[in-house]
Design a protein that fits this description.
mainly alpha; two-stranded antiparallel sheet; globular
Length: 483
């Protein structure tokens, strides 16, 4: 019987083939998308059950050289990431059915097909057993999402696609791959191990250089200054933006960095250089600078894009603190930001679908026309800011706890408080004008978006609230690592 970890990669690819074969029949094609997404969730659920029961999934498919193989290993970080990505694929598929049809999106079969392929790549990243496997699926994710970024085939889409490929492929080949080869030379292996593989093998100077190669080479994490691809890619349709920001791409980036810092460097090695860890300051700069830039954007999707750059900085900052509670906070931040940001992009897509509005300055009074959408937007905003009542609170809470125990206590706490205030400043006013200001064009006749879009956004908002109250089970899963 095929191992569930391998099956999680195969199901989306089988779904992609079914989507292609059923392209003449839209209803069947979309049914294949939903069926594949639900099947993936079921398989990941079985992996979760096995992990909680202490069962280990460890599979080597190909062996190339000593310490170099195509291998997969299930561990708690990967299980949580796979649950997030597979669950959001179901939600995004429901939303996409309404969005794609209502907006008469071109090349619809291509859209669903490449979405499925990108989920296979995401599962490969989640369950990669070593750096070589991670790199292969990281590149597969870049290539499979490129057709989605240039979906419209306009000049602006093509220009964005060039930036997307140029930054992501350029950094991964010139920096990430170099870091992998260097690590292999030093350690003789690329396998992920809880205590790390570089301990007692590198000094502070070499460690700093390797950290730089990894963190800037994994440009999907959008750490400044390798973030340009993310705002550029906002020309893509709303479901693609949701994929980039919540389901797969940027989350695959920060998840990869978390995995490398924990399993390649190791928490103990990071902690030894914590007091002069430049990564803490680089992440802090990315958090504050991008939040300030977001505050100045009138285009809703661009504001959300720079918000994502800021929120991703939290995750890198958390794991750079090298404290177990902060690392758990990083994973909670991935979960909270994914749910919050997919809600916000769903809302932006719904607003555009029914009204054509893309600017924040056009949204006065829109909450009275689209109460379900804007109520969900409010939940998404709370989640991203980190307010109690949503899952986004727990990431900030654990990060604050980690910061309080670090050598950079005052600096990190100051960054968190400042960025939280700026986040509130660029999100809360949108909620205010939507519900409390008069409409700019009261004669217009639009209302809520098609029902699949409304269902997707309201269900996601409900999940974001529910997880606030049941956050003990993700903590239980992450605690299995005993960092």
């Amino acid at each position: 019987m095929m191992d569930e970890a391998i099956l999680s990669l195969v199901i989306p690819l089988v779904g992609a083939l079914a989507i292609l074969c059923l392209s003449p029949w839209p209803n069947l094609r979309e049914g294949a998308t939903l069926l594949s997404a639900c099947a993936l969730v079921a398989v990941v659920g079985m992996i979760l059950r096995d992990t909680l029961n202490g069962q280990v999934h460890d599979v080597m498919l190909l062996h190339f050289a000593p310490g170099l193989s195509l291998a997969f290993k299930v561990e708690p970080f990967g299980v949580m990431f796979s649950l997030l990505a597979s669950g959001l694929w179901v939600i995004n598929s429901i939303y996409s059915i309404g969005y794609v049809r209502c907006n008469a999106l071109p090349r619809q079969t291509s859209f669903y097909l490449w979405f499925a392929v990108s989920l296979s790549a995401t599962m490969g990243i989640a369950f990669a057993g070593n750096l070589f496997t991670l790199f292969l699926f990281y590149e597969m994710l870049t290539l499979s999402t490129y057709p989605l970024v240039v979906q419209g085939k306009t000049n602006s889409d093509k220009a964005a696609g060039r930036v997307y490929l140029g930054v992501l492929l350029g950094t991964s080949i010139s920096l990430f791959l170099v870091a992998i080869l260097w690590t292999w030379t030093i350690a003789g292996t690329l396998d992920f191990q809880l205590e790390g593989i570089l301990r007692n093998k590198i000094g502070p100077g070499m460690m700093g250089m390797l950290l730089a190669l990894f963190t800037f080479g994994i440009a999907k994490a959008a750490l400044m200054p390798v973030h340009r691809w993310l705002p550029a890619a906002m020309v893509a349709p709303a479901p693609v933006s949701a994929l980039l920001h919540a389901v797969a791409v940027v989350k695959a980036g920060v998840f990869s960095i978390v995995k490398i810092l924990v399993y390649i460097f190791g928490i103990d090695l990071l902690a030894q250089t914590n007091s002069d860890n430049w990564l803490i300051y680089a992440a802090a700069f990315s958090v504050i600078a991008s939040a300030v830039i977001a505050l100045r954007q009138d285009d809703l999707k661009r504001r959300l894009a720079y918000s994502t750059v800021s929120q991703l900085g939290y995750i890198i900052l958390a794991v750079a603190l090298a404290h177990p509670i902060a690392v758990i906070g990083a994973m909670f931040q991935i979960l909270g930001h994914a749910l919050g940001k997919i809600i916000l992009f769903f809302a932006a897509g719904s607003i555009y679908t029914v009204s054509g509005f893309t600017k924040i300055s056009q949204l006065d009074g829109i909450g009275r026309r689209m109460p379900w959408t804007m109520a969900a937007f409010t939940v998404g905003a709370m989640c991203v800011i980190g307010l109690p009542g949503t899952i986004g609170f727990w990431g900030k809470w654990y990060l604050l706890q980690g910061a309080a125990l670090s050598t950079q206590q005052l600096f990190v706490i100051g960054v968190l408080l400042t960025s939280t205030l700026v986040s509130a400043a660029y999100l809360i006013p949108i909620v205010y004008v939507a519900f409390f200001k008069s409409e700019l064009s009261p004669a217009s006749s639009y209302g809520e978006a098609p029902w699949p879009m409304v269902v997707a956004i309201t269900v996601t908002a409900a999940v974001a609230v529910l997880l606030f109250f049941v956050a003990a089970w993700p903590y239980q899963l992450l605690s299995l690592l005993k960092l």
